[in-house]
Amino acid sequence: MSNDHAATLRRFQNPTVRQSAALDALVHQAVFGSGPEREQARWLIWEIGQHAGVRPASIHELYLARGRGEVAPFTTPAMNVRVLAYDTARAVFRAAKRLDVGALICEIARSEIGYTEQRPAEYVAVMTAAALREGFTGPLFIQGDHVQVNAKKYAADPETELQALRTLIEEELHAGFYNIDVDTSTLVDLSQKTLDEQQRVNYERAAEFTRFIRDREPEGVTVSVGAEIGEVGGKNSDVHELKAFMEGYNRTLKRLGPYAGISKISVQTGTSHGGVVLADGSIAKVQLDLEALQALSRDARATYGLGGAVQHGASTLPAEAFGRFPACEAIEIHLATNFQNIVFDHPKLPAELRGEINEWVKTECKDEWKKGDTEQQFIYKARKKAIGPFKRRLWDLPAAVRDAVAADLEKTFAFLFEQLRVTHTRAIVDRVVRPPLQSHAQPRAVAVAAPDDLEAGE
Q1: Residues 264 and 289 in one domain
Q2: Whether 185 and 131 share a structural domain
Q3: Measured between alpha carbons, how far is 123 from 83 in angstroms, rounded to an integer?
């Protein structure tokens, strides 16, 4: 470690310095700095977090404890932080600290990494810095959401597509993603006669990716691996499909070696990513099958020892829906689009910037404008693609604007934490999850993979 690095690290041992504009400058360098400066900033944030008690961690043991009935029902919010990442994450951790929340996940999907221009090392640095800035300490659950196989690419060249996922998983593990949702549900073949045949490619690939992760996870960490039995937006899942998947998965994993399995299972119960957009840009009411979700969660725990079932595509549900998820014992819920909507539709966002974003979408994403969609529908569905190109413009908005947006985000996060019953989960998380110290003597090399064009985000 250089003298400059050592001095900077010592400076940030002071909590007052960590929770000041000095950290803002460091995280800005970690995102927008050039080459070596950017990597040094990311390394320093990692080291500061390690020594301040903000360490990337796996939620695996907490979910297995829930599966054994040792933890009261709660539904962990897994929040896709896409846009205005640092301010949004600060709002997450500000609300979490105030409400004593330990069970929360910050995540980013394979597709989002590309269009938001946030590689895993950057994402970990920003989430860590946001937690430090707000004085949040404890295990930091960062998740690779929808590490998803593209069915068309797999059909054309299976090995090339699988290797792309392996490369991404290695990058995520190296960065500090110790929760990875493997999504091979795109390979379910409903044309097959039996449930086992329908799920076979799904469970075999999921087991192989589990082995791949286990062979590379850091010492002292059992990565939380999730799998999926039904593609979000498709046919609703049931307990018979769960049985076919789990029996096939466990059988395959046992054949591959003595590896720990998944901690949760994602299912389809009637939602879709981003919601169904009506002609005026509003979201259609969802017919959510909560009875199926409850049955799947109970069977996942009682029969297979998992934490429970995971609900995707839920951020645009009506407010009164969220309290139902802990009641039906869902272990996790994935939330994204509504947070993005709060930023893009906020009254404090400069009208000129909003207009530029909309015009960029109409020009650069015109190929995605589906026949019959109104302009409002098209912009709503495509504007996420503007997050990367406008990232710096949004980061550099006046503090008053960002503070106003963050205040509304914080209210939303606080509401969700209360509805999902994760308030006062700090003690149980700290008791069950013990992330090891992983200090590095010098900046680590970052393996950068090409962005993806999948559409798997919420």
Answers
A1: yes
A2: yes
A3: 12
Provide the number of structural domains found in the chain: 2
pLDDT for 441 equals 62
Name the residue range of residue 337's domain.
57-345+397-432
Tell me: do 373 and 404 sit in the same domain.
no
pLDDT digits (tens, 9 = 90+) for 408-427: 999 999 999 999 999 999 99
Residues 6+ positions from 317 with CB-CB distance below 8 Å? 271, 286, 288
Q: Is residue 455 part of a domain?
A: no
Specify the DSSP class assigned to residue 1. -
Phi, psi of 220 (to 5 degrees): 85, 0
- The enclosing H or E element of 200 equals helix 195-214
Residue 282: Cβ within 10 Å count: 14
Q: Do 375 and 321 reside in the same domain of the chain?
A: no
3-class secondary structure, 89: helix
Please indicate, yes or no, if residue 454 is contained in any of the structural domains.
no
Residue 40 lies in a domain: no
Torsion of CA 154, 158, 160, 164, to 10 degrees: 60
User: Rg for the chain (alpha carbons), in Å?
Assistant: 21
**Strand residues in 278-412 grouped as ranges (E):** 309-311, 332-335
68 near 305, Cβ under 8 Å?
yes
Does pLDDT of 68 surpass 80?
yes
How many percent of the chain have pLDDT more than 70? 90
Question: How many C-beta atoms lie closer than 10 Å to residue 332's C-beta?
Answer: 30
The kind and range of the H/E element at 225 are strand 224-228
Same domain for 279 and 374?
no
169 with 231, same domain? yes
Cα–Cα distance measured from residue 441 to residue 6, given in angstroms and rounded to the nearest whole number: 10
Q: Identify whether residues 320 and 288 lie together within a single domain.
A: yes
By three-state DSSP, how is residue 412 classified? helix
Please report whether residue 18 resides in a domain. Answer: no
- CA–CA separation, 64 vs 50, rounded Å? 25
